[in-house]
Design a protein that fits this description.
alpha/beta; about 40% helix; Glycerol-3-phosphate (1)-acyltransferase; 7-stranded mixed beta sheet; single chain
Length: about 220
């Protein structure tokens, strides 16, 4: 029996809410991001695809929007995010990606929205940054904000990224990196050299944030 999509989303959203409420989450170095936000600057929250589970319920104060796949699974995820007051722009790096990034840029500039981007998504390679967040920073003059999340105990999905689902009542650390300078300073151009340099910087920052954590299991 197939449940109506709206009911399936409601059930999944409830399970997600209950699971997140059971987690013991500690944030590190959050204040610099809040200071920028309070001064009216836009942020692009960058994290790895497998570490995104615990971010949304603890991204207090930020008005976030995410780029979600235009697939049927994406439909359900968009409804779940909407229940958490997170907006969705539909598309991916494989289909509709350029249009989705332009739509996100428009949203950020006109509705004072911050973006959250899984920079190695939607299909990897694992922990290798792609260009979408960098393009978005250049277009919007927003500040890149690297974020890493570490779960003490998690189930790893049998997917390309081994997506982490934390176990109930486990703990997690949400570690915020130092925000980059405004986007047109951090990514001054969209030429190959500028993008390659910014991409390497983002990967270094993400690796540094996870220093001391166990590598991929």
């Amino acid at each position: 029996m197939h449940l109506p999509p709206a009911l399936t989303s409601a059930i999944c959203s409830s399970i997600y809410t209950v699971l997140c409420a059971s987690l013991r989450i500690r944030e590190e170095n959050r204040q610099p991001a809040d200071d920028l936000h309070d001064r009216g600057h836009r942020l692009i929250v960058c994290l790895w695809h497998d570490e995104m589970f615990a971010l949304i319920p603890h991204a207090k104060q930020l008005k976030l929007a995410a780029i979600i796949s235009a697939s049927r699974d994406g439909d359900m995820l968009a409804r779940i995010l909407a229940s958490k007051n997170v907006g969705a722009v539909r598309g991916s790096s494989r289909r509709g990606g350029a249009n989705a990034l332009l739509a996100m840029a428009h949203l950020m500039q006109n509705e004072e929205t911050d973006a959250v981007i899984t920079v190695d998504g939607p299909a990897g390679p694992w922990h290798k940054a792609k260009d979408g967040a960098l393009f978005l920073a250049h277009q919007t003059d927003a500040h890149i904000l690297p974020v890493r999340i570490r779960h003490s105990c998690a189930w790893h999905a049998p997917t390309w990224d081994r997506f982490q689902v934390p176990l109930p009542f486990s703990s997690a650390v949400v570690r915020y990196g130092t925000p980059w300078e405004a986007g047109t300073l951090a990514v001054p151009g969209l030429d190959e050299d500028s993008i390659a340099s910014a991409r390497a910087r983002l990967e270094r920052d993400m690796e540094s944030l996870g220093s001391g954590w166990k590598d991929r299991p």
